[in-house]
Structure formats: structure tokens, C-alpha cells
Amino acid sequence: MTAASLASQIGSYRIDGLLFDCDGVLVNSDEAAAVAWNEWAVEYAPGFDFDRDIIHGRPARETIAELVPAADVQRADQALMLKEVETAPLVRALPGARDLLLALPAGRFTIVTSAVAIVARARLRAAGLPCPDGLVTFDDVARGKPAADPYRLGAKRLGIDPRRAVVFEDADAGVASAQAAQIGLTVGIGSRGLDTTATLVLADLRGIRFDGTLLYLDDAVQLRADPNHTPNE
Hints:
37% of the residues lie in helices and 15% in strands. It has ten helices and eleven strands. It has helices at residues 3-6, 30-44, 50-53, 60-67, 73-86, 97-103, 117-127, 149-158, 172-180, 190-193, and strands at 13-14, 17-20, 27-28, 92-93, 109-111, 165-169, 185-189, 200-202, 209-210, 214-216, 222-224. Strand 6, helix 9 (172-180) and strand 7 form a beta-alpha-beta unit. Helix 2 (30-44) packs antiparallel against helix 5 and helix 5 packs parallel to helix 7 (117-127). It starts with a helix and ends in a 9-residue tail after the last strand.
């Protein structure tokens, strides 16, 4: 099943559940992450600069493993985690995120993030967003994004066929993870989403509706259209 087969005649998508990345989709954590990483780098990776060097959507532990000696990875990882929790109050919800999550039917969405659980929960709390049942974090999988494990587990926790799910992502690693998990529809978010192979790209989460059966995107601002989308007539 592909995005084309999910598209209905009115340009909506018949789906069973929604999976959201967190950072860059639901929350703006760039400032918080930059402060945490750059303070951490003073001791562990001199010369590292978050804005210049980070690969968005990738688990922090994998980046750390490339920056510090193997014997120091565990200590460095713990130090960064503590700094990311400390800087979580700088995180803010992105446009449309809170209204959308609060309007979704219970048990029909979850969040799939490359962050560890303690950081993800701290950022959601700071942004005033609900933390859903079935939250998937880096702690829950053997392989993080871009491997299929995170989104495959997210669909499993919702009890749905991945081919009947939609993923909202801003990072190439996340879109690759969703596609590897055979997610039916991938939606890129924001300018970073344009650098992914997502089926379509929206400016943000405003204008999205889901009634439990149909996902409506026609009121959202599209940065790149779905080539298989059938517009309303």
C-alpha cells in the first residue's frame, strides 16, 4: 500500500493512526539543544558546533560515539542528557501542535523520537504538550532512525498496520525510518522537510484535521504537494 492508494477522491487520506516526530515537528528545541550541546562540547568535543555539525533526527548517542573515545562514550552521553534536561525550559511548541494533539481521538496517535525518554518527556512538558501512551524513544529500540525499528514499534503500539499510518517528520533520517517501516504516508514539516523524500511537505501542523477515519490536509499550508493528491472540486 502506498500514499497513492491512501488518497481518497476528495484529497484526504484514509488512515488508522498518526505518528509524530518530536523535535522540529511538535516542538522547537533548537535553542535548547544548541545550548546543551555547545556547553557539553567544551569538555568532551572541543571545536564541535551544534548549528554547523549536528545531523538532525539522528540519535545523540551515535553522534557522541563519533566525537569521543569509546571509553568515554557512556560518561559523555550521561553528561549531555543532563544538560538537555536542564535546557528543556527553553523548548516551545511549534504552531498548530498543541491544538492538533488535543483534538485527536484518544489512542490514535503517538510520538516517535530519537531522544531518550527523560529528555523527550522534559521537552514535551516544557512545551505544554501531552505525552501520549505508546511514546517511543531511543531507549525502546535496538536501532534508532534511520532504521525501521522506531516507526515499526510506534505502529505496533497503536495496534495498526504501518501501511495505514501517517508519519510527520522534519529530518531525512526520520523519513527514511518511516519508509523502511512501510509507513503509508510520510509528511515533511517545515523547511527541513523539503530536504527529505517525504511524499508532501507542510509548513507546520496548522490546518490539519483527523476524525478517526480521514486525515484532512487541504487547509494546511503546503510547501510541496503530494503528486498523487486529488484536490477538492
